[in-house]
């Protein structure tokens, strides 16, 4: 075990950190009176030489508050981390007992600990977020007493690389607003609340404060929500006017009374035009609430008005200037064009459609996994990136399908694939659309750009829409385009159903088909299913197809002892591009070995996949490799890549057969 305090303490002190020793195997400080100590270099040096060399390293939290995320749900913990990076500012991430995390910040004015209400998550586990602060300490480098493994700092970003002054500075007001925001999130996730918040209570109304106006307080707005408006409002040129600036402070005071002081001072510190009157914010605050005859009554609604103005300006700015291209400036765009090479372009509007029970969701989940994990899709290269999958039809039931993919491919690490299981209405609910965009921004902050958003299905994600009406389908197209543009150019796919006549494409008004860049048609012939990857290709001619079957994955047993399972795709082949009918197709030596062996075995009766695999894994049949597993890999690659003319079907009972409509030459 490393001698943490001996090896790291002085290095960390020299970077500005208030360093103290931590008891081995514990989280407690190893020295008495640590909270009141002024840490000096000689004191740290003395601890190293006097029995604390093997201790862990901790920090006083008075000027070094730590956002402690005590949440067991991985996705929700990641969401809090992303929100902290957005609203408090970037910070290193310390992990002791994953997915719990700690994010350090700095402050010039120490404040007391701020703790959220305690919640119980969907699995009965405690969930809480707190800002550890004055009178507390936290562990930076040590062995966690529960996991017995060292604390980790993600992405090689730790106090060893980032000095104290390089940390993001926060204030008590910002911390309170953020903790309140976390409470809103946990409540919105449906988690049960256990105890009360530490947010300071609103001061009682001053009877001398323009008494007739007390009823004008916005009692339907929580203090947490109001503080969020103040925290997110920019102190920009709108407040250059002393009158507007003063009225804004009066609005804060009117709504929150003395509890709004820190929010006001924090707002004044954010003035973008330099120093906003040294000492003036404090003096102005003391004047707020005093009864002055004839002075205008300013309520919290003015604060809301300024917040709404900023949001409206931001929405308008999203449109930006009109983009255009001069003819003589056009150049070939050759790189980074494909999401899945030859199947889906980057930034495309795309649809995958088929009849009910054909396996549309299995196809799209598999494709989403391939892109998120950066692995080929039916042998085609992918552009790896984060994926959002909106499971509007399956909802929470999709979890077993995702778990089956994890088990099938032994994925025990995190990949940037997030599945939305909530009921949403992208057709009629603007807030739902904003929620998806916010999740995309949050996901991008953690994993990098979101390259693909999948809506499964169009019908269930847009309830109330008349698919046969051009106006309603136009709204659906506009929603998809908005997701694409505001999520940074993500490809957007909608999963849809075939029409009554499947040969005529997807269900609904033709304006959707016209707006799409690409389509996949998914069909089924007994156990063999086909994805026509070239149903529509706007900028390329590609009529390739990929065939697959569904493979059952056992997940475990329920409370009654019955087996629980789901399915994943088993890729069979990719026949891109198809040879002309009757054209000769040249086989590789390995493929020829598979076909010849199958023909030989078939002379003796039915052939199973196991029999063919065993025969083809013998030395010299498809490979001369010395090790059996290498010969087996060679067989599987050859079997799965057989051209359509020689394709061998595997049936549900394990037996094999050639395509009935193809000759056997």
Strand content: 15-25%
List unreliable stretches of 5+ residues: 195-215, 574-584, 660-665
Q: Can you count the helices? A: 18
- Main structural class: alpha+beta
Q: What is the residue-mean pLDDT, rounded to a whole number? A: 83
Distance from first to last alpha carbon: 68 Å
- Whole-number radius of gyration? 31 Å
Portion of residues in helices? 25-40%
Could you characterize what this model shows?
By secondary structure, the protein is α+β, with helices and mostly antiparallel strands. It is 33% helix and 19% strand. A nine-stranded mixed sheet has the order 16-15-17-18-14-19-20-21-22, with helices on both faces. Strands 3, 5, 6, 7, 8 and 11 form a six-stranded antiparallel sheet that branches. A hairpin with a 4-residue loop joins strand 24 (648-650) and strand 25 (655-658). Helix 4 (172-188) crosses helix 5 (223-232). The longest helix has 20 residues, at 300-319. The termini are far apart. Mean pLDDT is 83; it is low at 195-215, 574-584 and 660-665.
